[in-house]
Design a protein that fits this description.
Order of helices and strands: EEEEEEEEHEHEHHHHHHEHEHH
Number of strands: 12
Helix content: 25-40%
Radius of gyration: 20 Å
Strand content: 5-15%
Strand order of the largest sheet: 3-6-8-7-9-10-11-12
Largest sheet: 8 strands, mixed
Distance between the termini: 56 Å
Number of helices: 11
Length: 383
């Protein structure tokens, strides 16, 4: 069988979800059950949840060498290491973590959880509900970034980590890193925020809203209850990925890489594609095979709801709670999370000095790609 993703050629039909599922190879994952139901900021609670996580290095007897690495929207716990059974892609920050690297695992104990609501081992819409085989699906509750951080705090407790030497994250991971520093200042000694913001802006919500409409508008979405139907909302998720990926890169980079060139022998005047369209088709096809549409919706909604100042007297008052040694960096070509948002963080976090700027043609994705520049910031902020 085959399906046709928008603006692309026929491809083999993927499974209904790309989520990690029981019976799949575990890879390097470990799991921590959260125990008692997790109270949720929007009301209610999430019972029977767990977090998948990976670690590198060894913890010091007093736990003082622990570093928390937080992934972005479609990332997971596999921050370092090769592609292998259970991990279809190499570590997304592989150049940053390991012996002799900036996060030197001969010195630091590095922990990377899969975010609550995600789909690579942590509890999310593709997970079974407690006490039965039925999946959460569309009944999965609304999560806030604070809820996700509260779950990660339980993981830290289980690992015997009273405080992090460094919490680092970019984009959605940066939102969680910031929430760690505001919600648990006594447990966050160092903080590195990359390409993120104190609160989601109207434009960021607008771009995300288009992606949510794409997923929910797919006839195979079925209100989020598609996991056991044999067919997921692949077209909608693929379209959402295309929209997102354009915002992740910069116009000069797309122009330099693709220009107006057609894809191979295809003729755009006769139903063929331009190279840039083929590139987006490729990104969409990859994502629908390794991600879950329900998780994409849950995590995108959490990002839209991000506001570190909510209930705390506003953003500036919230940022004054941060006591960590702090570095804030933006990407000079980032059009999704523009450097002005990071400048606000640097200006109002007491432990930050000035905005650092990553020079990159790659737009928002620069925080993942410019590993050497990020490594220099890690070495600067760690004691």
């Amino acid at each position: 069988m085959s399906t046709v993703l928008p603006a692309g050629p026929p491809v083999p039909l993927p499974p209904a979800t790309g989520a990690w599922q029981e019976g799949d190879p575990p890879g390097r994952r470990r799991w921590h059950p959260l125990g008692s139901p997790l109270p949720l900021e929007a009301g209610g609670e999430l019972p029977g949840a767990r977090l998948a996580f990976e670690t590198w290095g060894r913890p010091a007897p007093d736990g003082s060498n622990a570093v928390l690495v937080l992934h972005a929207l479609t990332g997971d716990s596999h921050a370092a290491g090769p592609a292998e059974p259970g991990h279809p892609t190499p570590g997304w920050w592989d150049g940053l973590i390991g012996p002799g690297r900036a996060l030197d695992t001969d010195r630091w104990f590095v922990v990377a959880p899969n975010v609550l609501g995600g789909c690579q081992g942590s509890t999310g819409p593709a997970s079974p509900r407690p006490g039965g085989r039925r999946r959460w699906g569309g009944a999965f509750p609304y999560l806030s970034v604070r809820d996700q951080v509260a779950a990660e705090a339980r993981l830290a407790d289980a690992l015997g980590i009273d405080g992090w030497a460094l919490v680092i994250g970019g984009s959605m991971g940066g939102m969680r890193a910031l929430e760690w520093a505001v919600s648990y200042p006594e447990r966050t000694r160092g903080l590195l925020l990359l390409a993120t913001t104190a609160a989601a802006s109207a434009e960021q919500i607008a771009w995300a809203g288009l992606q949510l409409h794409a997923v929910r508008g797919d006839p195979h979405w079925r209100g989020g209850d598609y996991h056991d139907t044999g067919r997921g909302p692949h077209a909608g998720l693929g379209l959402a990925r295309r929209i997102a990926h354009v915002t992740y890169r910069s116009e000069p980079e797309l122009s330099a890489r693709f220009g107006r060139a057609p894809q191979g022998t295809e003729d755009p005047w006769r139903g063929g594609r331009y190279q840039v369209e083929s590139y987006l088709d490729h990104q969409a096809a990859k994502l629908v095979r390794r991600f879950d549409a329900g998780s994409y919706v849950v995590l995108t909604e959490a990002m839209n709801g991000h506001d570190v100042g909510r209930g705390r007297g506003g953003v500036r008052a919230a940022l004054r709670r941060v006591t960590a040694r702090t570095l804030v960096a933006g990407v000079d070509s980032d059009r999704l999370y523009p450097p002005a948002q990071q400048a606000e963080l640097a200006a109002h976090i007491p432990g930050a000095d000035r905005l650092r700027v990553l020079e990159s043609p790659y737009g928002h994705d620069g925080f993942l790609i410019e590993t050497e520049q990020v490594a220099a910031l890690v070495r600067e902020v760690l004691p």
